[in-house]
Amino acid sequence: MKGYGGQILVVDLTDGGARVERIPEEMARAFLGGNGFAARLLYHHVAAGIDPFDPLNAVVFAVGPITDTTVPGNSRACVATKSPLTGLFFDSTFGGRFPATLKRTGFDAVCITGRAREPVYLKVTRAGARIEPARALWGKTTRETVEAIQTLEGGDADVIAIGPAGEHRVRFACMAHYWKNREGISGRGGIGAVLGSKNLKAFVVAGTLKTEVADPSALKALVEETREPLTKGTQALATFGTPFLVQPINTLGGLGAYNLRSEVYAEARAISGEELTAHYHDKDTTCLKCPVACGKQYAVKEGDFSGLRAKMPEYETIFALGSMLGNSHAPSLVKANDLCDLLGMDTISLGVTLAFAAEALERGWLDPKEVGLPFGWGDWRGMLALIEQTAYRRGFGDRLAEGSWRLAETIGSDALKTVYAVKRLELPAHSARALKGMSIGYATATRGGSHHDTRPTPQYAQGFDRRGVEGKPLFAVRSQHFTAVDDSLVVCRFTSERGFGLFVGEPYARMVNAVTGWDMSVDELERIGERVVNQERMFNVREGVGRKDDVLPWRVMHEPIPDGPSAGMHCPPAELDAMLGEYYRLRGWDADGAPTPERLAALGVP
Ligand code: SF4
């Protein structure tokens, strides 16, 4: 099969055993790779009802046919598991060099199950799996771990590691991969905590196999054709990175602030891409073979963090640790972001959980003595201290480590009304109230509060009706198919959306056919997206998910945006209910949101 290594490696950390499974062409053509393979594998490897921290849970790392080709943004991998935050299917993608190196091992997917008796790291090469002791690395930061393993294994090996947060099973612990030109941070939903529960400190890959492309000249022609729109469409990203979004989204009235009590942040300018670039830009960084270079390294030259050189905080981080906390102290965002990467924590869940805590303190639901240190709106010193406490589950950090929903549950039902989460996953920086497509999108997303199921990008475009419900269920359906295909290929969303289109279309079919030699139609590709979404939904239905869970945060449904250009917007329950009905009908799901046997049979799921 062109475009594939054609093999899956299944590793059991409990006994150290590993086996190789061949990937039949029918499976590749039905699920493509990455996200699709992970959905298929997890459905079959993880039985319903298993605790995410049970050794029987599995973590799948997977690449796709596009990985390590010449497609811009091709060095991207998917990682998936049953999430300890949501209790449901969860996948995440990351870049850097690791994804291309994983592909070069000849394994398109590595499925990790079991639990090692003591800390280990797993190394995968063309020869298979090798498990190495890692007791000396336990307690180290992600960067220290990656560097120590690269010293042992050589610079050609790529490493992704958990930090102390993963070891302490923080429910939103993630992983970090460092490569000289760009980091890859991955694993919202607590994938790092699942690795920690398996005593797996790091995953290491090394390989040299080349990905064979069926029709290199067809692929070259496609890449040439898309060069111009890609260059034009990524100008702001290339200049400022994702923080370029701060100002326009604030101007639109959709930048959540003060735990969503407002969606206009008066001090947005201080934490905008323009300001951050002017003060801190040091150099651009980029994933392997990507012309965009949306990553930036910052250097802080004065103040409390003088001398700090660290990765640029992404837009989502600026929202979660900035406007949501009423924090416009830009250097503290650089510091907090770096801390989260080193300790291995998702900044979105952490920031939104802290924002909930700030409101709970203000309302008197939390006693300052319980928190144990000064903290409140705009208190970046308290924020930094709580970040450290959370990673190690020290003091109040132990409660924050459970995420906003579980923390609010311990307080009471009024507190739950102020949590900004769907299916227990904290929402990112694309408003569930100001973008109607996101309202239905978040409610129906496999992961819950994720902007990578239904995409916000098209909704910011001029001419898109972001206020009306008309057509939004269909928009969510098609957008979810697109993201499932994108993450199965696996390609970077920034390059795919801007170079190849916002929905599954001709350029994507040409891409697949050039790499694999198949004759896939656009409709067949769209059906792959639908198949993956249905496979994920079946995982969640098996866990008890239904219409009752396809809801939005209480505040989104009951409190209109109070001020600014989006004032009055929200998504009342009746409106959501009507959109849900339409969404289920379009999907061929029953009234409770379960895929019908007929639709599953037509798609070949599960
Ligand atoms: S656009 Fe940015 S995140 Fe995407 S592949 Fe390029 S450098 Fe990496």
- Ligands bound here? iron/sulfur cluster
Helix content: 40-55%
Question: In what range is the share of β-strand residues?
Answer: 5-15%
- First and last CA, distance: 23 Å
Radius of gyration: 22 Å
**Strand neighbour order, sheet with most strands:** 2-1-6-3-4-5
DSSP summary, beta strand count? 17
Structural class, by secondary structure, is alpha+beta
Quaternary state of the chains: single chain
CATH superfamily of the largest domain: Aldehyde ferredoxin oxidoreductase, N-terminal domain
State mean pLDDT (0 to 100 scale).
Answer: 97
CATH class of the largest domain: Alpha Beta
Number of domains: 3
Describe the structure.
Strand 4 (77-82) and strand 5 (89-94) form a beta hairpin. This protein has 3 domains: 7-205, Aldehyde ferredoxin oxidoreductase, N-terminal domain (Aldehyde Ferredoxin Oxidoreductase,  A, domain 1, 4-Layer Sandwich); 238-410, Aldehyde Ferredoxin Oxidoreductase Protein, subunit A, domain 2 (Orthogonal Bundle); 426-603, Aldehyde Ferredoxin Oxidoreductase Protein, subunit A, domain 3, CATH 1.10.599. The relative contact order is 0.12. The chain is built from 26 helices and 17 strands. The chain is globular, with a radius of gyration of 22 Å. It has 606 residues and is of the alpha+beta class. It starts with 6 loop residues before the first strand and ends with a helix. The model has no long low-confidence stretch (mean pLDDT 97). Iron/sulfur cluster binds at residues 73, 95, 182, 286-287, 290, 292-295, 492, 494-495.
Question: Quick recap of the structure?
Answer:
The chain has about 600 residues and is α+β, with helices and mostly antiparallel strands. The chain has 26 helices and 17 strands.
